[in-house]
Amino acid sequence: MKGINMKKVKKLKEGDTVTIVSLSSGLLGEKYCRHSLEIGLKRLNDMGLRTKFSPNALKGIEFIKNNPQERANDLIWAFKDEDTSMILSAIGGFDTYKTIPYILENKEYLSIIKNTNKIFLGYSDSTINHLMFNMLGISSFYGQSFLPDIAELDSSMLEYSKKAFLSLFKEGKIVYKPSKFWYEERNSFGADQINIPRLAHKEKYGYLSIQGKNKFSGILIGGCLESISELFINEDEIKINQKYNLFTEKTDFKNKILLLETSELKSYAKEIKEMLQKISETGCFNQLTGVIIGKPQNETFFFEYKNLFTKFFSQFPNLSVVYNINIGHAYPKMILQLLSKIEIDIENQTITNFKNQFN
Question: Which residue range or ranges hold the LD-carboxypeptidase C-terminal domain (predicted)?
């Protein structure tokens, strides 16, 4: 990322087109998701946005699973499309890493990405797409995707999540405080759940300091912990990571803040520890300014994780670590711009994202 002249990402405006892509799972193309798709499209239209789909986005689970090259082509198609201002991930999954070689080995594709200024928003498995963009010096946005967030089955988006999405229409900084409520994941996503609210709980803890300074800042990188750790565990992903340096010992971690949020898998604390140990082999925790960690979905293993993080990060006394951030797989969700400046203030319970401020 050093020496790259980064482009400022333009804000959304009324009349802009959002293109939805399926880079991981093809769930959005299944008939049983039709009701969710229609809800999500109406929400985007109600915000004054036009919508379209990349050519293969709605071809279903099996096609998307078996055709990673077409997924890669879809991403580039969205970058090339003159109408598209924002590229929105449909949902996460497990194997978007398979798209990486088709993009990074193609000089034309690289040129298109580097010379096109568009918003990319996704989370979960989209972490791998973010790492690719960020390695290329392209800023992207982490925190939400189409099906889980825009297409929320209740009568409206979760208010905190909606405000975060609407921040994409604004320039300058955005300040997040902890959500007053958190929400459980649904057990069912059928049409019978339309207009049914999620189970809500009052937030008890806010942003929790695990160690280090109560106020610190840096440039944000990272994403889903499980997705990053697979780059060190899955044999195929290890090869791709080492070849393309998505997250390795060659990554520039200086003055960075690493976002780590845990997935819907609700991994045991022992497994989380193993993931952190794998990631630490890059030397990142000796170089980073700080780590911010998402609230676990449904607050599952909340204190087990807290105890683990307290013990694990004590090995790195110069690192500032904060836990229980509203982002990723827990509901509701903020949106943060990767490769831009972020400031965490525990005393005032704020996270400030300075959009398009790259140093």
Answer: 217-343
Please give the class, per CATH, of domain 173-354.
alpha beta
CB-CB neighbours of 261 under 10 Å: 28
Q: Are strands 141-142 and 173-176 parallel, antiparallel or unpaired?
A: unpaired
Asked whether 195 and 154 are in contact (CB, 8 A), the reply is yes
Q: 17-151 has which fold?
A: Rossmann fold (3.40.50)
Burial 12-33 (b: 16+ CB within 10 A, else e): beeebbbbbbbbbbbbbbbeeb
Q: How far is CA 112 from CA 102, 104, 128, 181, 312, in A?
A: 13, 11, 19, 41, 41
Domain boundaries, the chain: 17-151, 173-354
Do residues 21 and 57 make contact, with C-beta atoms less than 8 angstroms apart?
Answer: yes
How do residues 80-104 score in pLDDT, each as one tens digit? 999 999 999 999 999 999 999 999 9
**Cα–Cα dist 265/192, whole Å:** 25
Neighbours of 195 (CB within 10 A): 10
Q: DSSP strand E in the chain: where?
A: 17-21, 50-53, 84-89, 119-122, 141-142, 173-176, 181-183, 200-202, 208-211, 215-224, 256-261, 290-294, 320-325, 336-337, 341-345, 350-354
Residue range 308-342, pLDDT digits in tens: 999 999 999 999 999 999 999 999 999 999 999 99
Give the residue among 3, 80, 88 at the shortest CA–CA distance from 43: 88
- Whose CA is closest to 342, among 121, 98, 168, 175? 175
Per-residue model confidence (pLDDT) at position 4: 53
**pLDDT of 112 higher than 50:** yes
32-40 mean pLDDT: 99
